[in-house]
Design goal:
single chain; alpha+beta; D-amino Acid Aminotransferase, Chain A, domain 1; Rossmann fold; seven-stranded antiparallel sheet; four-stranded antiparallel sheet; 14 helices; 20 strands; 34% helix
């Protein structure tokens, strides 16, 4: 599972669309997104005109879906923004950070001009939130909803299944009122009959209880159908027509399920976390990872460091990094890199090339080490996995010598003997130092050997 946050703008559109598709439930969600470098709020508010110069009518409800997911209908439904000129508005940054209300970043009850002014004053600017600085590039704009009651609702993946939470105490002080939140765990793969108890003993009128009960059951269906890992609404309320409306919403999706959900997820994006800045190489590996059925991860830590890693397995990669730090060489740890899920040879080759390019970029006369580590694989053909790495090492013949880079290999699993032999032969062919170790050696033994190498 790979949990990835999505913007509130996308979360609300997905929820409204798929509640209608799966359960026939209409929630009056209207959202607009203002992006740095894109159309202004005033431009979005202009009526949409079709090819025959007729003004498109406002769509007050999500369209009825007959077959499939109706992504073309979704696009049409989402175009009309005439409500921006007719409603009082709510404006807030849509940048994946929380506590926007407590940070005075949620602006309420605005007209179009006031909302535009606030957005223009902050869009593209630098902002510090909870000690992290970042650049504001996205805003979400919605109609302001008059309300009295505020509720809290969430569904979250956990080890036992899905944890569902509800409380009549939603809003910015939810953490102080968490003892009033009722929770129930729905075991994985079982019918969500436990949802019937989530509203028990809550101070709700019959009509409100009935609306919330149907809404919660619908949200649970959407959560499972779209492979969400988190769906949180704080607060949640009902409007004057007794429709349930999420006022503030968070959502995470399991990106490992992208292969089966591309149509359902429609046009959403997976932004980086607030304040994150990535190099071209990190962006490249991320794009490679998104297109692959395997896992490919790269994070630069100290680009001029002398200990580089390229480790098979998510757990093993963390252990190697921790061991480097535990042995007092954290300031020399250049990167975190992990590949798993049996990547194709071409993917492994591109992954290794990227790391080798970084590892040889700043030769300074000092020795450096590359840890090609991992545990004992169950099914992965080690020799086949090494083929891409070997080709990448051949490409950097010459640069490896200039950078004084030594390769330390530790691996076990199917065909590991052939893989280690090929690595040893490569060292002789390229005249670079390569040490290899099999499953009879401790998994992290090469860490101390690498440290001894760069200290010598």
């Amino acid at each position: 599972m790979a949990r990835k946050k999505i913007r509130e703008y996308d979360a609300k559109r997905l929820l409204a669309w798929h509640l209608k598709r799966l359960k026939g439930i209409h929630i009056p969600v209207q959202v607009a997104q203002v992006v740095d470098g894109g159309p202004s709020l005033a431009q979005l508010a202009k009526p949409t005109v079709d090819t025959e110069d007729h003004v498109t009518e406002s769509v007050s409800e999500t369209p009825v879906l007959q077959n499939g997911f109706g992504d073309h209908l979704f696009e049409e439904w989402n175009k009309d923004k005439s409500w921006l000129m007719e409603s009082k508005l709510v404006v807030k940054p849509d940048m994946l950070f929380g506590k926007r209300g407590k940070s005075n970043l949620v602006k309420l009850n605005l007209n179009l001009d006031e909302a535009s002014e606030i957005i223009e004053s902050l869009l593209g600017s630098s902002l510090e939130v909870e000690g992290i600085k970042g650049r504001v590039t996205h805003f979400i704009v919605e109609p302001f909803v008059e309300h009295d009651a505020e509720y809290y609702f969430s569904v979250q993946s956990c080890r036992e299944g899905n944890l569902v939470s509800f409380g009549c105490c939603g809003g910015v002080e939810i953490e102080q009122n968490w003892d009033k939140v009722k929770q129930v765990t729905i075991p994985a793969g079982e019918d969500p009959t436990g949802l019937d108890t989530i509203l028990a003993n809550q101070d709700l009128s019959f009509q409100v209880r009935e609306q919330l009960e149907q809404f919660i059951k619908g949200c649970y269906l959407v959560f499972e159908d779209l492979d969400m890992t988190l769906l949180e609404m704080n607060p949640l309320t009902l409007n004057d027509r007794n429709h349930v409306i999420p006022l503030d919403m968070r959502c995470e999706l399991d990106t490992y399920a992208m292969f089966k959900n591309q149509k359902k997820w429609l046009d959403i994006e997976f932004p980086e976390s607030w304040g994150a800045q990535f190099t071209d190489e990190e962006h490249f590996i991320r794009s490679l990872d998104e297109k692959s059925g395997a896992s490919l991860k790269l994070s630069l830590i100290h680009p001029k460091g002398h200990i580089w890693t390229m480790v098979a397995g998510g757990g093993a990669s963390v252990i190697y990094a921790d061991t480097v730090v535990d042995l007092g060489m954290g300031d020399e740890l250049a990167n975190y890199a992990e590949y798993s899920g049996n990547p194709k040879e071409e993917e492994t080759y591109l992954f290794a090339r990227t790391i080798l390019d970084l590892a040889t970029r700043y030769p300074d006369g000092k020795k450096r080490a590359l840890l090609v580590g991992g545990g004992i694989a169950n099914f992965t053909d080690i020799a086949a996995t090494f083929a891409g790495i070997i080709q990448a090492l051949k490409d950097f013949h010459g640069k490896l010598q200039v950078a004084k880079l030594k390769v330390f290999v530790r691996r076990g699993g199917p065909n590991y003997e052939t893989g280690l032999r090929l690595m040893e032969e490569l060292g002789e062919e390229l005249d670079i130092p390569i040490e290899v170790y099999g499953p009879d050696s401790n998994m992290t033994c090469i860490v101390q050997k690498a440290i001894d190498w760069i200290r010598d």
